[in-house]
Amino acid sequence: MNWLWPFLHLILLFSQLPTYKSSSVSDLFDSWCKEYGKTYASEQEKAHRLKVFEENYEFVTRHNTRGNSSYTLGLNAFADLTNQEFKARYLGLSPSADDLVIRLNSRSVENEGPNLMKESDIPSSLDWRKKGAVTGVKDQGSCGACWSFSATGAVEGINQIVTGSLVSLSEQELIDCDKSYNDGCGGGLMDYAYEFIINNKGIDTEEDYPYRGRDGTCNRNKLKRRVVTIDSYTDIPSGNEKKLQQAVATQPISVGISGSDTSFQLYSGGIFTGPCSTSLDHAVLIVGYDSKDGTDYWIIKNSWGKYWGINGYMHMIRNTRNAEGVCGINTLASYPIKTSPNPPPSPSPGPTRCSLFTYCSSGETCCCAGRFLGICLSWKCCAAVDAVCCKDHRHCCPHDYPICDTERNLCLKRIGNSTLVEPLAKKSFSVS
């Protein structure tokens, strides 16, 4: 019977391989969770996320080991999401066929900006980040408002080019107040955002009207804070890549793309070549272009934070001789036009009014300290703008960490659609 032992040993070894693989991916998943601060509400949810993570791990490994691709994939912050979950949470461009037809037919190339660079003067490469016309990478979270980030990015760019001042502008104002055609976290179009800014005679800053990552009620007082203005906007003819490059050589440009493929979800570096759909569902900002080893590419600023792509950016192939471009990047491009100066600075905001006789200082939030029959009889002040007042009437939390944990004296925020919470680094504020 001794001759059976080698065969039994081999059978035992191979039977253990799947367990070894699962264990190694499990360890990798635990490390990934620590890196990205991920925790889950239950062991069942964690087990489900591990399974999704393993499927994405296999997808990444297959792509990267082929060795014939110009780009790489990675286990980024979206590696625990299925592609369907990812599409539902992080995309938000909503151009219907009718929208596109009306938009492209109503705005002609005759409306192009007065400073549009001549084709003969277009440089071989350009990066608006190096020219100081691009703000830092932002994170839309699970709010499908990519359209607002693309629009503000384009306005930020042309404002810096015209005035010399780089000002981060408020996506939340567009989400809350631009409701004629756009739908906040439910999706929208950049052209409608430009129209809103024009009709409102300006837009507020990110600092004054900060991002919350969810739909909210329009703060009418902030609408009067018209810090940056634009005069008009125009659309680049669909499929005209030469005209698109001419525009990018002049200023950062808003574009619609398809960002729903798994390879786009898990992109980590290199020149992205697809494959991907040309059905537009996401909006980004082209901030330049360059070439590497004979391959031309666009420099794209995304709004998924710095943990995606190349610190929040993507290099996407251009000059493919395909009119639509990879991921449809050549089909829905537009940019704001600015020739007029910005209005003078608004006067500093006055005290915050709580009631007829009670005020808090500028930049503070009124919190009710005592009610009777639904009427607040006593007010206190929280030293934070647009803060959330805790139910204990003694503490408050900043708007971006709106969940009060008064037992632990912490401010928390919800991550995605799960029950996951992330604590604020500092304690909750006391009202006084």
UniProtKB/TrEMBL annotation:
One of its GO terms (biological process) is proteolysis. CDD domains: Peptidase_C1A. It is found in: Cell membrane; Vacuole. SUPFAM superfamilies: Cysteine proteinases (SSF54001), Granulin repeat (SSF57277). GO terms for molecular function: cysteine-type endopeptidase activity. Residues 1-23 form the signal peptide. Residues 354-411 form the Granulins domain. The lineage of its organism: Eukaryota, Viridiplantae, Streptophyta, Embryophyta, Tracheophyta. Residues 122-337 form the Peptidase C1A papain C-terminal domain. It comes from Handroanthus impetiginosus. Its EC number is 3.4.22.14. PROSITE patterns: THIOL_PROTEASE_ASN, THIOL_PROTEASE_CYS, THIOL_PROTEASE_HIS. One of its GO terms (cellular component) is vacuole. Its main location: membrane. This is Cysteine proteinase Cathepsin L. It is an enzyme of class 3 (hydrolase). Belongs to the peptidase C1 family. SMART domains: GRAN, Inhibitor_I29, Pept_C1. InterPro entries: Granulin (IPR000118), Granulin_sf (IPR037277), Papain-like_cys_pep_sf (IPR038765), Pept_asp_AS (IPR025661), Pept_cys_AS (IPR000169), Pept_his_AS (IPR025660), Peptidase_C1A (IPR013128), Peptidase_C1A_C (IPR000668). Keywords: Cell membrane, Disulfide bond, Glycoprotein, Hydrolase, Membrane, Protease, Signal, Thiol protease, Vacuole. Residues 29-86 form the Cathepsin propeptide inhibitor domain.
